[in-house]
Amino acid sequence: MKRIIPKKGTTQSWIPIEKILENGIIKTKTKYIKLLKVTPINYNLKSDLEKRSILNSYKIFLKTCNFDIQILIQSSKENLEKNIFIIRKNIQEKENKYLKNISENYIQYINKINSNKKSSSKNFYLIISKKISKEEYNESIEIIKNDLKEKYFKIKECLSRCGNTVIEINYKKEILEIINSFFNVRKNINEKIIKKEDNKY
Questions:
Q1: 64-108 pLDDT per residue, tens
Q2: How far is 155 from 71, CA to CA, in rounded Å?
């Protein structure tokens, strides 16, 4: 039995984004959104005293920032071809066979990790927003900017006590890259699921 797959529309046709303003604020039909990028810390490497201090600061963050916050974690596979190229170049310059063998084994190890998709980097984002009603839809953008800016400064102040760095994403190009990469990951997953289901028929 042949499965009929509906035609795919463009990403823009179903994402509820109306416009990305110059200051990095995303306008949708029901709210205005701002993306914040967070640089994480390695909690496991901290001492017990530092861990207690971080947890106390995080509690303050949860109490102080009493508004909606969404967390977005974006994983991307690392391109290790450049690393492998440098290693191979160094191998050619070595005369020691033992070092050459070690380097070749290391390249095999890197390729294995990469093929198993274990080599990936993660980006962490916070999404803050201001909901708007129909009456507020044409509200002054300055009021909206001030509301989101106030939320941003609260988050930045609280998370800096935990050791995190928080920055605003103000450039349209960077925002589009984040949105596209996030939805493209899910698109690829859906395509794989469809292919698996097709094989059943």
A1: 998 999 998 887 666 667 777 777 777 776 667 777 777 788 878
A2: 13
pLDDT at 40: 87
Q: What is the per-residue pLDDT across 156-188, written as a single tens digit (0 to 9) for each?
A: 999 999 999 999 998 888 888 887 776 665 444
DSSP per-residue codes, 120-146: EEEEEEEEEEEE--TTTTT--HHHHHH
Tokens of 67: 């508004």
Q: What does the alpha-carbon distance between residue 71 and residue 148 come to, in Å, rounded to a whole number?
A: 16
- Rounded CA-CA distance 21/151 in Å is 18
Distance separating alpha carbons of residues 140 and 42, to the nearest angstrom = 41
Return the pLDDT at 1: 52
Contacts of 119-122 spanning 24+ positions with Cβ under 8 A? 119/77, 119/78, 119/80, 120/75, 120/76, 120/77, 120/78, 121/75, 121/76, 121/78, 122/73, 122/74, 122/75, 122/76
